[in-house]
Please model this.
Amino acid sequence: MDARAAISGSRRWRGIVLPATFVALWGIAGSFGAGKSGLFIPLGAVIGALFESIRNGDLPGAVGATILRALVGWSLGSLLGFAVGLLTGLSTGSQRAIAPTLHGARQVALFAWIPLFSAWLGNGEAMKIALISLSAFFPVLLHVEAGCRGVPAPFREVGRLFAFDRIDEIRFVILPAAAPTIISGLELGFTIAWIGTIGAEYLIGTGYMNASPDGIGAFLAGARENARMDLVVVGILALGSIGFVLDRVVVQASRRAAGWHKRSR
Amino acid sequence: MAQALPIASTSPAIEIAHVAKSFVVNGAPLEALRDVSLGVEPGTFISLVGPSGCGKSTLLRLISGLESADSGHIRVRGEPVRGPGLDRGMVFQDHRLFPWLTVEHNILLSLRRTTYSEPQKKRIVRDLIALVGLAGFEAAQPHQLSGGMAQRAAIARALAPRPDILLLDEPFGALDSLTRTRLQNEFLRIWEHEGITMLMVTHDVEEAVFLSDRVVVIEPRPGRIRRTVDIRLARPRRRSDADFVALKEEILGELNVAEA
Amino acid sequence: MTINPTINPTITPLEYRRRFRAAVPLLWPPGFADLASGILRRAGSVLVALALPLAIFAAWSFAARYQLVAPQILPAPSVVGATAIELIKSGQLQSELAVSLFRLAAGLVIGAAAGLAVGLAMGLSTAVEDYLAPTVRAIWLVPSLGWLPFFMLIFGIGEALKIVLIAKACFLPMMVNSFDGVRGVSPKHRDVARMLELGRIDTLRFVVVPSLFPHLLTGLRLSLSKGWQVLVLVEMIASAAGIGYLMTWGRKSFQLDIVLVTMLLIGVVGWLLDRAALLVQARATAWASRSVG
Ligand SMILES: Nc1ncnc2c1ncn2[C@@H]1O[C@H](COP(=O)(O)OP(=O)(O)O)[C@@H](O)[C@H]1O
Ligand SMILES: [Mg+2]
Model:
């Protein structure tokens, strides 16, 4: 017991060796004045940049804008994906009519929609939200459709035995049975919507068109434009940690919502 | 609700006449049932036995309305079967409780299309949970129940809409023999209490003789009735009685021929 | 005997159809009815599937014809078609596509090879896994897009940038799948190998590789699709050639016909790449299972 705990403890430490060595080398190299070349940023400078961008409100503002935007776009896209997925999942006719077109549209890489969207919707919030919604739309749609189609026949027969009408069947049998699949669609949709958010912000932020940029994507693009490697590193760290936290939140929430499935396994 | 009129006893609870059913398996037709006729009087307990694949489940599914016959007709209380209805309950071998609902809500959901008031529904559910011996497990999730308990919950769920007929497809098939014997005894008590018509598929001839008024032996390829055996033993029955054992041997003999 | 289901209620539509089918061979040569109904069903579902695209196309033509929308925003289908033909005739579309595909290939080879090496090492040795896994996971929290400005400052906006970013995108699917492949070799099969006293090489050859192989192909396919997505992105942001660049250029010069043509091309090429990968996967998996079994 003790030995096992000790092993798992030492194994956990192994994971830190690489990053720790890296940070140590980084710090040492900085203290020997390797930072003069321009590309190399001493560890201290990054920490300084972090505090600076927090103090002047740039980073918190960017983070807030990105999170808000991601959530709004994800919600809209999920709602739409849910509605269409329900339609194609429940009615074979509409699946035949709609699904091939949607699968065709899905082949176009996500960011390749940006030029078209920006021409139609301008470079403001509408275009970004449209892109983020689109990025969440397809995974949610596909999962809702698959979830509804995959409800085991034995469950549906129980509904028939109790003389359920179609509405009852959807409400009490199909949706609960499909919930775990639908929820993993929402999870995946969020992951992709997060990338879509950064991409939309970044492309607008690079002066793709003249618009007022904000969000972490724009923060990164601006830092690159001004050749501020310290701010680029700060942006990457922020991106990683927020992505991690949001992902955890979404996964935890969905675990709770899909509880019956995991528990009954 | 009006009391059943004396006329009811003259018209059978279930009337199956010249029923045939085939499925298409790998492009070729498979005759699951051929020319099956059977009458079941109200309140009786009938068992169907036969080798697996002989069409027992198919027959139950035809009566329940989950499938429709290719030819022939099935009437329940004189009315042709057009689809599932609350007058017929069904218990499957796999309990088919919804894993996302508690025991209580699983039973409650079966009352969705009935006209009872909410308090009435609550009372029905509470009484049934007590009847099948699951008091205290109202809020349990299906995965927290043992196989026997889940099957009791499934029986309660099938009984909740007050069906005239209960169709049971190997309800105790997946249980260990101890649990099985106990459930058989309890089930007999429920049948006597509710007075409904029972049609049960089973693999276990002893179970069939123990519970039924009549045992129907079905033979396969194509599925048809080989023989029906009336069980005129007094209740409560004892499995070790000579008459009991003789009937059991007789049916087993029929089955061996059917299986050959 | 009546075969009309409306007259004889005991005959269900299914039985009616069965009897009709049974009577058909008398009228037509055997197999004809199935063939004909199969073709009709096929044609029907194709027609249904085409209805929506045709409706969109009609609305588009209508809007363009009557100038409901400015042509800079929505060029007429005929204009888009003409642009496509022009771009192909001049050879520009092909040369941009060639540039893009070369970048994709280079990035895929580097990224997938690195992913394979790391994935195998981590799969075969728990020590390597202990040391590497947390770092890899941390780097992975930041999407490829986030690394773009970092790489841009280091590599500039030349060819190296695109290849590095694509390689980075291709790395993870390959790594994860080769890791899963090694770890997924069933202990039962290993036991069998030990009982048969297969040597290390034979165990590798008959047990590990066949069960690893499908995972590697899955990894490769996912890498390809990830790489294609990232390629489009990086070409849109920092490039002077390639299909993504052509699209951005079309947008900046308000030539939406070029944008639409390139979008279509991106979709079609992405789809073809995935199809091809799926085909290779299916073939190779069949081959692997045959060569062992
Ligand atoms: N839905 C179906 N599709 C195709 N074949 C079926 C279907 N249901 C039952 N069958 C076939 O019909 C025959 C009778 O099945 P069933 O009634 O389940 O037998 P039993 O319950 O007596 O074991 C079997 O050969 C089975 O394979
Ligand atoms: Mg059966």
